[in-house]
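Threonine/homoserine efflux transporter RhtA structure dump, as promised
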Amino acid sequence: MKTSSGYWTAVIMVIIAAACYGIMSPVLKLSYNNGYTFQQITVHQVGMGAALLWILILIRPRSWSRLTFSFRHWTALALIGICGLSMTTVFYNQTLEKLHASFSIVLLFQFMWITILLESLWNRKWPTRWQWIAIAMAMAGTVLAAGLFQNKLADIDWAGVGFGLASAVTYSLFLFLTGRAAPDYDPVFKSAIMMSFGFLVIAVLYGYKAFDGGPDQEWGLIGWGFVLGLLGQVLPSVLFNAGIPRVGSGLASMLGAMELPFAVVSAWLILGEPISVSGIAGIVLILGGIVLAEYGARHGRIMLTK
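structure tokens r here:
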């Protein structure tokens, strides 16, 4: 039954996973404020995340029987890890370097309507009426949350906006492809493979600048990498993979949207970023669009079964 304790435990798991993602944004911004560079933080964050996932596999011997090698599956996971996971981290971390954490997460949340379009292209079907309304709500919410009516266009860092939208595209690809690759693999094992290949690419791109702070700064970077890897890679992966099968993907998508208010509130608490009325209205519109898109999808599934 959906009212069982296991069900509500799964609901809490998904909410905590979303909260981890939301809290990560201002924490990452805080690391920049402490003098660390984008290259240093990105390499240590993803590297520590990959290491923690492999450690998690080692301390779970019961899962070892599901650790298999398939060239096709590993190639698919490697491509997802590189094009989806690592590029999302690269683009989003650069967004946070240039924009407020609360605005950065709003840009990342454009993955909602981008994923709808990807699904439509894949299925060769136009988005439904509900999905078009959800897309319009997300667009309007972004304009409000960005404060475009209050600020001059010249005051906006458009490079940061570009990185933010790029992170939304790559995150959409990650979400769209992950469920279709190696479905029988252990979830933590899948995450570890993707994270490891993503880390290799990030190390090649930015490794030469990741360790130029000296041994004293390196200990601080290890600490930041551990915290960010835990919040951004390990906890969400484990909790989402444990909770989503119990609550279903529909409810999980709505619970996962809690990342947005968690990010905005934590940016206010940790960084002192202001929360405007238009910003709150924009966030409500975006969240409403997510709920509406899921309602439309569920309504369509019900109609098909009749």
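The chain has one domain: 5-305.
lmk if u need the other ones
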